[in-house]
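Can't paste images in this forum, so I'm doing it all in text. The chain is below; anyone willing to post the predicted structure tokens underneath?
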Amino acid sequence: MAIKAELFASSFMVFILITCTNAMDSQVYIVTVDGTPAIHKFPRSAESPRAFPSSTRSEMLAYTSELVARHDDLLSSTFTSSSYRKLYSYSHVLNGFAVKLRPKQADDLRNSQGVRHVEADWRLKKLTTHTPDFLGLPTGAWPRDGGPSNAGENVVIGIIDTGIDPTHPSFSARGPVPYPPLANFHGKCETSAGSSVPLCNGKIIAAQHFAAAAQAAGAFNASNDLASPVDEDGHGSHTASIAAGNHGVFVNSDGFYFGEASGMAPRARISVYKALYRHFGGFMSDVVAAIDQATKDGVDVLSLSVGPSSPPSSTRFAYLSAFDVALLSAVKAGVFVAQAAGNGGPYPRTMASFSPWIMSVAAGLDDRNYSNWIYLGNGARLAGLGLAPATPGEQMYDLVLAEDAAVANNSGFSFSPSNCQQPEVLNKAFVQGKILMCTYSFSFLYGGATVRKVADTAKSLSAVGFVLFVTRELPGNKFNPIPLGMPGVVITDVQDSTSLLNYYNSSSAGSAARAKIGNGMSPTYEGTGPQVAIYSSRGPGVKDYTLRDSDVLKPNILGPGSLIWGAWTPSSMDEPDFQGQRFAMISGTSMATPHIAGVAALIKQAHPDWSPGAIASAMMTTASVADKNGKQLLAQHYSSTGSIILNPATPFDIGGGAINPSAALDPGLVFKAGIEYEDYIGFLCSIAQMDQTQVLNVTGSSCTKSKSAADLNSPSITISNLVAHRIITRTVTNVAAAIETYKVSYVEPEGIAMQVSPSLFTIQGGQSVTLSVTLKVAAPITGEYSFGSMLLSGDKGHAVRIPLAVRAGAG
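Text version of the structure:
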């Protein structure tokens, strides 16, 4: 039996598929055992994952070898050697291993001395030229870091994804300034079988692949899947180029130039950990191995477009999965983790990222649009999506509806003639020299039809261009513009499509319907971005598979995620509209996540002593809640009829708000004091119905104290069940050099009375101040969340904003 995860709007997020096997079948299990992982035994400063002396590293390597030997001894003393297959030893962020066993053997392991936890593996399925300017990097963050040629210098971003294309210009090490060796980074570079192209070049500083669990499960096919870090899918190259792709790379697609691309931190190094594959996705034990290796290597930032479609049922609470616990140890080691929120929006409780130690990233639209128009012979102008050239000259051309050009016998073909997917079903004599009119139907969502095939059909029939139009609302569709080598326009509005059809049908044979298509190759910047994309997953955050609300704000931040240009793999079959291209423009929270990872690298470069919690705080408290026109941020939602509408964005849409890199480099105050590994353990121990023995078994740490989620020193306040009143404290630390006086103001959540003390304070550089926030139910309980905010305004110009989400409860 298999329990399948729902596929959401965007194809670019990795979702977990939990598979229950037949009782006699072997499967992979993740096992944690007694003993301290290396990260905990050899703690490094939370400010730097590479900061310990070489003598300590030698001791650590000896210790990890000892742990691996213990794993081998446990297995060999429990089972015959032919009855199991060990895939990985985890020694850095977890102490344990991944092993292929029969379910009966897994039960035996659970009862073995020294074994703490046994968890079934999870199968995974796969779900920029303008954003640097949109985020203000060229005039803000980059100059502070020495310009684009220095932005991200000496910072390593780990990308756990589908690998990388080392030949892509976004990752070339050529340039006026060479990449010197990086001290204290210990990643390695695999060789790629059958390829003479080196995988690493100084820009790409390490590259490994992880597929042992996929091979053990029989999912990996050596004839289709590359057992190397080389990217055959495109997704890994795309995310890596967004985070740290070179500056000023020309974007060409179908022979057209679309500007110059740049990563957020163009001088940062890239360390590649391939754990996902084109044909089957991946397995969680492979991903955990990648996290373990990345942390051991010493990456500064991890970018993860991977997560579950719902909290796992194999552990009672979402935070106790091997994935989340491994990331908790990575954060303890000083690694900042950005994870995609998921593509389950706009529906509530669809987050794919749960834990308070992870930066969960929502996806937004920026202000760039590729618009175009079709001009009709009756004088009407209908708007659509562009990225295609205009019809030749100024003259108009006859229109022909695909159904009217269909061949007599077309019943044996895969698609309706109206979809224009197969030229054989249309009569070339009727189409030649005309604009072909095609229908956008559900086949484009679920049946394999593509806009590029429409263009190919029109071209093969010698049409001068095409127009693709909708006849009904299609909820879940994003209508992304596709670069095309011939004139074409996609009309996405049903009313405009109706006007086009009415004009065509009202024309007589003596007065044929005529039109011309405008030039859609140049973008416009007239949007009101950012806006929350329709597919971006929404909060509130949940704590278990029954979807009970947590007191952890999710998502945490909004990053650009829609229509993002980035590196692509020409051989990729994943996006048919970009097959054969070296760049693709795609959407998803997977695209938003490396934006945040890249910004984190810029902050780490400017402030190498900042912890992951301080970096996250700087991003959230300086994030914008207004669009570029100064109006409140809006979030896309569906109306009752399925059309997209805009509602005011809440913290469950945007977390702290839309990322503002320049402000995040100089936040004034950060919420960092008290956010330590022990506090997160205290958080786990405070959860109602949590088995504290399970906390010990999974994390290796005992419950010595309790700290609720609302009491973590995070840059937000979320209370899912406020009874009567509650006092919350938050401690802020001045990370600016100068003394500053802050005034506290706030907007009360509806139905909640609020007080903050002190209301005015002066704080010196390096000093901390604790704020006491009293929240009291002041109106009848509605069962709905209400939202507010606190604002700390400094007399030196710093503004620190904290979002609030509160739901009053009866007990």
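The chain has three domains: 124-367+528-670, 371-517, 716-808. Residues 124-367+528-670 form a domain with the Rossmann fold fold (CATH 3.40.50.200).
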